[in-house]
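Long-time lurker, first post. I've been practising inverse folding by hand and with some scripts of my own, and I keep getting stuck on stretches where the structure tokens seem ambiguous. Below is the full token string for one chain I'm working on. Before anyone asks, I'm not after the true native sequence, just a reasonable design that respects the backbone. If someone could post their per-position residues I'd love to compare against what I wrote down in my notebook.
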């Protein structure tokens, strides 16, 4: 028997990276997983691998959200779990960021999470409750240069999570945010991140399945947690590893 037998789970950005790892772990615990993405071929492959279904869903498109959730509810029943994982990144100095680039990042990473919460809330309430996991970042806890739109979007997700948790708690809907540090996925594939990891207490990149295990815990077992942040970053945001000389006397 799985921890999530029969539960209906929507995972956005499920075609690769952390989203695909989330799909696999939720399905392994018995959830009926709906893999959503804009990469249709890759998404369909993941859906087949996990015994789930694929739906094209651009998270920035409110009509697309309404249509997908209506179909899922009709075919599988009320949505129990939503993993708002889809995200994009772009590297530009704030003073050189075009409005179109700002809007691209905010529309997927922040507006997409808002639209997802809004799209499933009524269904979750009707089904007796649910869990929404919003994938933010350490960029939702601190700043990074050349990532202003991304950082703003991820801080936005953190705040949105708290407001939603306050409103939806009485409907038995928990809403939490996850804050990964550097994780090995297609998003980070081309980046030179070695130095960044060398200064962490756990001096290595994280793996997508490590984040997926946290997501499973939040969905299945974190029954007294809502509105709060869960950091999974190898200690990257704990502080600076200053070496202070200590007199042994
Ligand atoms: N990889 C990291 O180091 C890291 C760290 C912290 C947070 N994150 C966040 O974790 C999440 C997953 O990232 P990842 O590293 O697996 O990235 P990834 O690029 O490997 O996967 C992201 C997925 O989101 C999909 N996507 C993009 N725009 C979409 C849209 N409009 N609608 C639907 N799907 C869309 C992509 O097609 C892709 O399948 C993102 O929100 C990202 O910002 C990543």
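-- Answer (accepted) --
I ran through it position by position. Result:
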């Amino acid at each position: 028997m799985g921890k999530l037998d029969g539960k209906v789970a929507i995972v956005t950005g499920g075609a690769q990276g952390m989203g695909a790892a989330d799909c696999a772990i939720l399905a392994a615990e018995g959830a009926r997983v709906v893999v959503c993405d804009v990469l249709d071929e890759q998404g369909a492959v993941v859906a087949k691998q996990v015994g789930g279904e694929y739906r094209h869903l651009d998270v920035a498109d409110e009509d697309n959200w309404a249509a997908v959730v209506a179909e899922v509810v009709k075919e599988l029943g009320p949505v129990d779990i939503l993993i708002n994982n889809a995200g994009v990144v772009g590297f530009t100095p704030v003073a050189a960021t075009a409005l179109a680039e700002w809007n691209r990042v905010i529309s997927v990473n922040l507006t997409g999470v808002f639209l997802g919460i809004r799209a499933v809330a009524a269904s979750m309430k009707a089904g007796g409750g649910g869990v929404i996991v919003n994938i933010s970042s350490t960029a939702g806890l601190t700043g990074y240069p050349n990532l202003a739109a991304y950082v703003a979007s991820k801080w936005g997700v953190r705040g949105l999570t708290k407001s939603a948790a306050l409103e939806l708690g009485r409907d038995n809907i928990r809403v939490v945010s996850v804050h990964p540090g550097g994780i090995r996925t297609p998003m980070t594939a081309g980046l030179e991140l070695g130095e960044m990891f060398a200064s962490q207490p756990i001096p290595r990149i994280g793996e997508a399945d490590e984040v997926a295990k946290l997501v499973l815990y939040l969905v299945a077992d974190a029954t007294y947690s809502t509105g709060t942040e869960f950091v999974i970053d190898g200690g990257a945001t704990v502080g600076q590893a200053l070496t202070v000389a200590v007199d042994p006397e």
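A couple of notes from the structure itself: The two ends are 58 Å apart (CA to CA). Residues 12-13, 15-19, 37-39, 57-60, 85-88, 108, 135, 137, 180, 182-183, 185-188 surround nicotinamide-adenine-dinucleotide (CB under 6 Å). Happy to go over any region you disagree with.
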